[in-house]
Design brief:
DNA-binding, 25% helix, globular, single chain, six-stranded mixed beta sheet
DNA sequence: ATGGCAGGCTATGCCTGA
């Protein structure tokens, strides 16, 4: 059995105590982190290792930054960029763990529809599709997980009417996500019965979490062959209830491998 | 229509996030 998780921590410096507690309580085998917001030189490797995890990381100052934690072996065949996109933003981290290929993503937010950042997001998603298409040729067991910054359907948004015309839900973004899935990936969360209004991100403002005014934008996607072994896929709300939380909750999937 | 909250920075307000 392997337990794999994704969590946008919104600053690993601030959230390190939450992460270490969560690792102890949850005991995942592999964890994908996003928005660590630090250079590689500042990565808290000693604390992570003391908790029993190896780490790969691709960081930058102030923004973005991704990491992969694993119990036991460190990942191999590490990738930190799309082959055809020159990009200083650290949003990609791929590695292989005993034949399991893992691709950790921090998809661009896109700011607002029609902005330069929106175009960057859509272009980035095209490169993601190309890369996943190639990866699926080489790996039957592929997991693509992270903060996708896209709410796939209206049921993934607390108030679809209020979000209409906004970032995260625009038709081109949703189409890009569907095209990605159609390459042969399964949204493991939707393989199982879930409570209505299940979300993974809530705005810090306006008591959004207390009112459950959220969106579901963090996913664990599994290749078709692998998805058949998925036994569970959940969102862990506990860390979002803590003092000074990340605005994202971790998502966790278990595979019988 | 607007701002609201949080993090990082060389800052004492601004940018970004979603």
């Amino acid at each position: 059995m392997i337990k794999i998780a994704s969590w946008n921590v919104n600053s690993l410096r601030v959230r390190l105590p939450h992460l270490l507690d969560w690792l102890t309580n949850t005991a995942p085998d592999i964890v994908a982190l996003q928005e660590i917001k630090m250079t590689d030189a500042k990565f808290p490797l000693a604390e992570i290792q003391a908790a029993g995890y190896q780490a790969l990381f691709s960081g930058q100052k102030t923004y973005n930054g991704v990491a992969l934690l694993s119990r036991g072996r460190v990942g191999s065949d590490v990738v930190t960029d799309w082959p055809m996109l020159e990009d200083p933003q650290r949003r990609v981290l791929g590695a292989t763990y005993d034949g399991l290929r893992v691709l950790n993503l921090y998809v661009p937010n896109g700011s607002s529809i029609g902005s330069d950042k929106y175009q960057y997001k859509l272009n980035w998603l095209t490169h993601l599709q190309d890369y996943v298409r190639e990866s699926l040729k080489h790996y039957s067991h592929l997991i693509v997980l992270g903060d996708f910054n896209i709410a796939p359907e209206d049921r993934d948004v607390y108030d679809p009417a209020a979000w209409d015309g906004k970032i995260l839900v625009s038709p081109p973004e949703r189409a890009a996500l569907q095209q990605l899935l159609s390459l042969g990936l399964s949204d493991t969360f939707r393989q199982f019965e879930q409570a209505p209004e299940s979300f993974s991100w809530w705005d810090y403002r306006g008591s959004s979490f207390r009112r459950n005014h959220g969106v579901r934008i963090d996913f664990i996607l599994a290749s078709t062959a692998l998805s058949r072994y998925c036994a569970d896929s959940t969102i862990d709300l506990a860390p979002r209830r803590l003092e000074r939380p990340s605005d994202h909750a971790p998502v966790v999937a278990t595979f019988h491998l």
